[in-house]
Amino acid sequence: MGAQKKGGGGARVSEDAEEQSRQRLQAILLADSFATKFRPVTLERPKVLLPIVNVPMIDYTLAWLEYAGIEEVFVFCCAHSTQIIEYLEKSEWYSHPNLVVRTIESHKSISAGDALRYMYEQQTETSQIQGDFVLVSGDTVSNMPLADLIQEHRDRKKKDEKAIMTMVIKQSKSSSLTHQSRLGTDQLFIAVDPLTKQLLHYEEDKIDHPSGSVCLDKSLLESNPSVLVCNDMQDCYIDICSPEVLSLFEDNFDYQHLRRHFVKGVLVDDIMGYKIFTHEIHSSYAARIDNFRSYDTVSKDIIQRWTYPYVPDINFSGNRPLRLGRQGIYRACDAVLSRSADVGASSVIGYGTKIGDGDKILNSVIGNGCCIGSNVVIEGSYIWNNVTIEDGCEIRNAIVCDGVKIRAGAVLQPGVVLSFNVVVGRDFVVPAYSKVSLLQQPTTEDSDDELEYADSSSATADQLSGLNLQMESKASELGPDGAGYIWEVCEGAHDEEWKHSVAPIPEDKLAEITQAIDDDDTDDESVVPTSGELKSDADSINTDMNDPNDDYDYFEKEVEGTVLRAVEENIKVDLVTLEINGLRLSYNMESADCAGATFYSMMKLAVDTPHNSASELYKNAASIITKWKELLGFYVKKIDEQIEVIMKFEEMCQESPKELGPLFTQILHLLYDKDVLQEDAILRWAEEKAGADEADKVYLKQCDTFIQWLKEASEEEDEDDEDEEEDD
Amino acid sequence: MDFQVVILAGGFSSNLVPLVSKEVPKALLPVANRPVLSYVLDLLESNNLKDLIVVVEGEDAALKVGGWISSACVDRLHVEVAAVAENIGTAGALRAIAHHLTAKDILIVSGDIVSDIPPGAVAATHRRHDAVVTVMLCAQPVSGPSESGGSSGKDKTKKPACEDIVGLDSWKQFLLYIAKGTEIKKDTRVNKSILCAAGKMELRSDLMDSHIYAFKRSVLQEVLDQKPAFRSLKQDVLPYLVRTQLRSDVSSDQNNVEENGNGKDNMQNNEVVLSQILSNASLPSFHQVYESGLDSRKTHKCCVYIADESKIFVRLNSIQAFMDVNRDVIGDANHLSGYSFSAHHNIVHPSAELGSKTTVGPHCMLGEGSQVGDKCSVKRSVIGRHCRIGSNVKIVNSVVMDHATIGDGCSIQGSVICSNAQLQERATLRDCQVEAGYIVCAGGEHKGETFARR
C-alpha cells in the first residue's frame, strides 16, 4: 500500500513540476498540543487561546503564517473546538484577504498522529492538501520567512524524492547544569550531516543526570565521513512536509507524537529510505510555547522585540496596539496609573487597567481591565484580563488567569498558577509551584500523558456551575473567603515542577544538581573500565546479542521438558516429533542439535529415574531407548547427526563420570543394536577422537574392544561381500 | 623549545616478518635505501627538534639502531637510545624510560612514519592551548594503510573501514571523543556531559590518529603511575584523558605551580586571556565556561592538530604499507626521499652497472655498486646497494634490498627480496616476500608466498 502511494506521488512530482511552483502555499495548524502541561488552565480554555502578552497565541501563529506567504491554513481543532471556532469567527481571520482559514474539527483525535491521520482521511475525499505544506502547532511564535525554505524543500524533493520533510532548528544552548533549554524543554541531541544537513539522529532526553551517553549506530559513521552531533539546538516544531508525510502517518497507525514516533520511525526505517533534513535559522525568531517556562521566556522575548513585527505596539491581528515608552514599558493609553506607582522595565499594562498607589511592577504583563489596589508588588508575573488584586498583595513569578480575585494581603510564592476565577483568601499564602483551579483535579489521571482534556467543554461548564455551589458550603483551600482547589502534584513529577515553572530555577536546586553531577561522575568513573568505552561497549553488546550457546541451552531445556512430558503422558512419537520440530524452527537449530538434545533428555531421564546400581541404570536407559528409539531415529538419519549423539553422550559421561561413565560402552552397544547408530558413525567418531588429547580419550579407550569388534565385523562383511561377488 | 622528543621505534615487529630479522629491526627497514627511522629524524631535525630519545624494544634491536644512529647523525642531533623490554606496549615503554624525561612537554612520535607533516606545528598547538595532550590527526588514506586491499573484495560497502572515530568541537581545536573504529561493534557512544559542555561535536571517521602526540610530562607520568593497567598510549591513555577532560583527576596545575604559576586564580585568569589572544578565539573555550560554572571542578584540554590534506603521511606497519611507502617515496612523494631525481624520474647511482639493452623505468632506484645484466627491465622498483642481477630479469613493483643476488631469467613482481637473499635462475615470484639470506631454488613459480626459515 505504501509503495503504491509512493510511486504515485513520485510520478506526480515529476509530471507536475511546473504546477508545483504555482501551488498555493498551505499549512496545517494543530490547535491542540495534545499534552497536559498547561493544566489546569487548559481545562477551561484551549491552549491556543491563552493570551501571551495580551494576545492569544494562535494570533501570533496565524499572523506569522500570513506574513510568511502562506495562502491557506487548516486549523485542526480538537479540545474546546467550539471555543476556537467561535474565536476565529469573531476575529478578522475568517475574512482575511490573503489568508484562507479553514477549521477542521475532530474530537476523536488524541494525538498529533491522529490529527494527521484524520487529515489524510479527509484528504482522500476532498484533496485539500495539494502539495507540500507547513506543519506547525498553534502555540508557535515566530517571524521567520518561509517562502525560501519551502522552495529549498521543493528543490531538494525534486532531486531526491525521499526527502519528505524539512524541520526548522535554532541554536539555543541548553544549560550545562540543568540540561534543559531556556524554553524548559528536555535536552535534545541531534546528529546532522554537516554538508547536506540531513538529520541522522534525534534523541530527546528526560533524564537529567549527565552520565548517559548518546548512541549512534555504527553504520551511520561508516556511511558518513563526518557527523555533527549537536546539543545546542532547539527544535522549533516547524516542519515543511511533503504529502508523503500524511500517508506515512496513515500507514503507521501507531505514530502518535510528531517527534518521538514519526521522526524516530523515519530515521530507523531504512526500507522506505525516507529522509528528513534540517534547516537552521540564525537571525529570525521561532519558538514554541510548550510549558510555563517557555511561556515566560517567549513573553520576555516578545517584550524585548525579538519577535518583531509581532510586538505589543504593532497591530498584527486586530489587537489594540499599546504605546511603547522608555525602558521597554508598554502602556495602554487609557490605563490609569497612580503617580506613586513604580512601573519598572519590561512591563506591559493593558487597556482599562488601574494601578493603585505605591504599587511596584517589574518585568510583568498585566492584561486588560485589571484593578490593582495599593502597595501591591508584582514581579515577573503574568496577570491576564479582569483580575482584581486588593491592597498589599505580593505576587512573584506567577500566572494569574482571567477573573481571579486576590484579596488583601495575600501572597503568591514563585511558580504559582491561578486558573480562571479563583479567589485567594485574605492574607493567604499560596505555596510555591501550586496550581489552583476551581475545578477539582481529575482523580483518575490518564495513564498516557499524551491525552489532553478528557472531558469535553460542555461537561466542564456543568461542572463549573455545580462547583460554585459546592464551594460555598465547603471550606476553601485558599483561606476562609477564597475559592479553588490546590492541585496536588502527581507522584514523580514533583521534582520536575521547578523545571517547567514560570519561576526562575531556585538557588538550592542548582546547588543540588551540582552535587548530583559530582556524584554521577564518581559513579561513572567506577563503571568505566580501564580500556574505556571500547570494553563497556563490548559488554553491552554481549547482552544485546543472544549468545549462540545460551540459545542452545534454552533449546535443550525446552526439548528436555517436551520429552519428559511425552514420557509421562505417553504421547505418540509423531506428536513429539512435531513439537520438537517446532522448537527447532523457533530456535533456528540444526537437525543434529535436535538429535543431541533429544538424546540428552532421554539419558537424563534415565539417570533421574531412581536406581540403586549401575545395572539398574543400564536397564532404565535400555528401556527408554527401546521405547523412544523412533523419536531419536527421526533425527539421526545422517552420520553427522549420529556422531553428534555420541559426542553428546561422551559429554554427559564426562559430567557424571560415576554414574554414566562405566556404562558408556554398554549403552553405545545398545544404541548400535537398536539401529540408532550405524557402525560407520561409531568408527568415524573413533577416528576423529584418535587425534585428541589423552584426557579426552577415556571413553574411546573404554570401548576399544567394541570398536575393534566393529572394525573386524565390517572387514568380515567386506570379505563376505567379496566372497559373494566371487560367488556370483 | 623545552620539548623532549620520544621516538617509539619498536623492535622486531611481528607483522613485518619476514622483512624484519635479527639483523634488521623495524626501525632500520630501508625505504628507498634509507632506514625508515632516518625519515623521522630528518623530519624532526627540520623542525629544530634535536633532543631525541629513541626507544627500541629489545637489547639486540637497540644495539643495531644505536649503531646506525651513531654512524649516521650523531654530529647533528642529540640522540639517546633506550632499550626497553619487548611487548610492554607504548605506555609501558614510556614508563620504562620515565627517568629520562625532564622537559615540560614531551612529543611522542612513532618511529615508523614517513611524512612531511611538521611535528613542530603539533608542539606549537600544544603550547598555545596549554593542553594536556595534543593529537595530530591526518586524513585517512584512500586505500587503507593495512591489509584492507585484500579484504575489500568481500566488503559490500567498498568504503574503507573507519580506522578511528574522533569527535571534535566546532572550531576543530579540541578532541572530545576518540575510539578505534574497528573495535566498535555496533554503536558509537558519546558521553553526554562532554557533548552538553561543548554544544556541538563533529564526529569524523575520515581522520585518523597519526601517532604523533604532545603530552604534558607531569600529566603523562601521573597517569602512567596511577593506572598501571594502561598498556597503550592510543588505546588506554589517550581515551582516558579525553574522557576525563571535564573532571580532571590529573593535578597538572599543582605540580606546575612553581614552573608556570597557573595554580592561582588570578594567574590563571591572565593565562586564559593570553591563550584566548593566542588562539584568536573571541569566546572562551567550553572548558573555561564549564570550569567557571562549577567552581569545584577542574578541566584539562585535549587538543588536536589536523594536518593539511595535501600532506603525506604513511606508517610502515604492514608489508603492504612497506611496499606502498617504497613506491610513494620514489614516486609521487619523491621530495621526501631527499635524493635528486634524474630527468627520467629515477635514480641510478653512478657506480651502478647496467648491461646492454637493460631499461630502468621512471620511479625506480638503483643503489650504489649494483650490477644489472643484459636485457633486464626494472619498473617502479627499488634496488639496494651491491645487488647482482643477472640477465633477462624483470623486476616490477618490487623492493630488492642490499646484496641480493638474482639469477638469470628471474621475474619478480610485487615482491620484497631482503638483503643477502638469493634467487636462482628462472625463479618467478609474484607478491612474495623473501627473508634475508634465503635461497629460492631455480625455476620455481611462486605466488603470494613467504620464504623464511622456520
From TrEMBL, chain A:
Domain of life where this protein originates: Eukaryota
Subcellular location per the Swiss-Prot or TrEMBL entry: Cytoplasm, Cytosol
Keyword Magnesium found: no
W2 domain sequence ranges: 549-720
Assembly behavior: Component of the translation initiation factor 2B (eIF2B) complex which is a heterodecamer of two sets of five different subunits: alpha, beta, gamma, delta and epsilon. Subunits alpha, beta and delta comprise a regulatory subcomplex and subunits epsilon and gamma comprise a catalytic subcomplex. Within the complex, the hexameric regulatory complex resides at the center, with the two heterodimeric catalytic subcomplexes bound on opposite sides.
Protein family membership: Belongs to the eIF-2B gamma/epsilon subunits family.
Name the UniProt record assigns to this protein: Translation initiation factor eIF2B subunit epsilon
UniProtKB/TrEMBL annotation, chain B:
Superkingdom of origin: Eukaryota
One Pfam family per UniProt: LbH_EIF2B
SUPFAM superfamilies: Nucleotide-diphospho-sugar transferases
Keywords tagged on the record: Cytoplasm, Initiation factor, Protein biosynthesis
Cell compartments where the protein resides: Cytoplasm, Cytosol
Domain EIF2B subunit epsilon/gamma LbH: 350-431
Boundaries of every Nucleotidyl transferase domain copy: 5-149
Functional note: Acts as a component of the translation initiation factor 2B (eIF2B) complex, which catalyzes the exchange of GDP for GTP on the eukaryotic initiation factor 2 (eIF2) complex gamma subunit. Its guanine nucleotide exchange factor activity is repressed when bound to eIF2 complex phosphorylated on the alpha subunit, thereby limiting the amount of methionyl-initiator methionine tRNA available to the ribosome and consequently global translation is repressed.
Subunit structure as annotated in this protein's UniProt entry: Component of the translation initiation factor 2B (eIF2B) complex which is a heterodecamer of two sets of five different subunits: alpha, beta, gamma, delta and epsilon. Subunits alpha, beta and delta comprise a regulatory subcomplex and subunits epsilon and gamma comprise a catalytic subcomplex. Within the complex, the hexameric regulatory complex resides at the center, with the two heterodimeric catalytic subcomplexes bound on opposite sides.
PANTHER family the UniProt entry points to: TRANSLATION INITIATION FACTOR EIF-2B SUBUNIT GAMMA (PTHR45989)
Family: Belongs to the eIF-2B gamma/epsilon subunits family.
Protein name, entry field: Translation initiation factor eIF2B subunit gamma
